[in-house]
Amino acid sequence: MKAHLPEYFAEFVGTAIMMAIGIGAVALMWGQGTPMRGLIPSDNLRRLLTGMMFAGGGTLVVLSPLGQRSGGHLNPAVTFAFWWKGQVPTADAVLYVVAQVLGAVLGVYIVATVGGTAARSIQLGLTLPGDGYSVAVALAAETLITFMLVFLILYCVSNQRFARRTPYLAGALVAFLVFVEAPVSGTSLNPARSFAPALLTQLFQHQWLYLVGPMAGALIAVKLAGWVTGQQRAGCAKLYHTERYKCIFTDCVHSHAKAGSVVLEEGGAGDRAYVLERGALEVRKRGPDGSQQVLAVLGPGDWVGEMSLLLNQPRSATVVATQDSELREVTLKNFEHVIAEHPAETVRLLRQLCQRIDQTGRRLAQAQGEAGGKA
């Protein structure tokens, strides 16, 4: 666990920043003594702007180095979902939730200190069932909206077409949900987000529903996402994956290669291939004299190691990263899924294979021509 302290700290700070921005937005738009009530008399418009600022803060944190390092869960319901899928070890899941709760408390405390009367007038953003809505309705609403958020996240991280857009899509959904659902339950979506104001105001009435609802919604999302995608474990438990930081989670399909490192070794087992996401690779072949000849230079979107994977043969060449690179792993187990779900990559793979066959034919023709000339 000591090795993961940077990730826990990043999750703590990231959650604190998100909460400071989000609860600060609530105080700014709805608190007493702020000019926004006069400048923006429409409750609907102020609620929309509140959702955009709250969601925007979370999105920025996920995209920041903090989110890139920790994975940017910022929410016990999200961590619970990935833990249930088996992608976050239990110890990491527990400490992530602790970091999220402490971070939320710190973020709300900052708003309480800086916001003064405006922050106190909104009870530090305390979530409660809306006027005219029962606890049962609020519970059902929290379950539904958290299901929608977690399902979107799980679907996106397991789908190459949407994986890198996960923070943006999740942020847009949260902003929309705040706009349409906040009058019902307050649009918590996040047990840590609701617990922090309740703790600092010592108002715990109905707060149980903001734990039960999001956790139930997350569990339903895990079950349904596994059925829809046909994959119980896919993608990565990070909401935004880059080559800058190692991944501490289980079954991550992303790999990092530092510049100069060997990605595939000639003669090695061909048990997996990769799709290059970012960076650059060189394919090198050892000659009779021991020197290495560069056969190909690969860029983002190119496949590497696919021949050995498909033919179940040892590697025919060595692949070296010439830049810090990020690669997505493809095994025989998920190869059919990749081909079926990503037609653009299928076309790229076929084109790449055809080019290699063409290059091989040209080399053979050249060699035969040289042999004929000598004869």
What's this, in brief?
This protein is of the alpha+beta class. 59% of the residues lie in helices and 11% in strands. The longest helix has 32 residues, at 90-121.
Provide a descriptive summary of the structure in words.
This protein is of the alpha+beta class. The protein folds into 2 domains: 2-229, Glycerol uptake facilitator protein, CATH 1.20.1080.10; 254-374, Jelly Rolls (Sandwich). The protein is 59% helix and 11% strand. The strands form 2 sheets. A 4-stranded antiparallel beta sheet has the order 1-8-3-6. Strands 2-7-4-5 form a 4-stranded antiparallel beta sheet, with no helix packed on it. Helix 6 (90-121) crosses helix 9. The longest helix is centred in the first third of the chain and has 32 residues, at 90-121. It starts with a helix and ends with a helix. The model has no long low-confidence stretch (mean pLDDT 87).
Give a quick set of tags describing it.
four-stranded antiparallel beta sheet; 375 residues; elongated; alpha+beta; Jelly Rolls
Read across the widest sheet, the strand sequence of neighbours is 1-8-3-6
Low-confidence stretches: none
CATH superfamily of the largest domain: Glycerol uptake facilitator protein
Q: From the helix content, strand content and strand pairing, which structural class follows?
A: alpha+beta
Largest sheet: 4 strands, antiparallel
Distance between the termini: 69 Å
By DSSP (H or I, 4+ residues per run), the number of helices equals 13
Overall 3D form: elongated
Strand content: 5-15%
Helix content: 55-70%
CATH class assignment of the largest domain? Mainly Alpha
CATH topology-level name of the largest domain:
Glycerol uptake facilitator protein
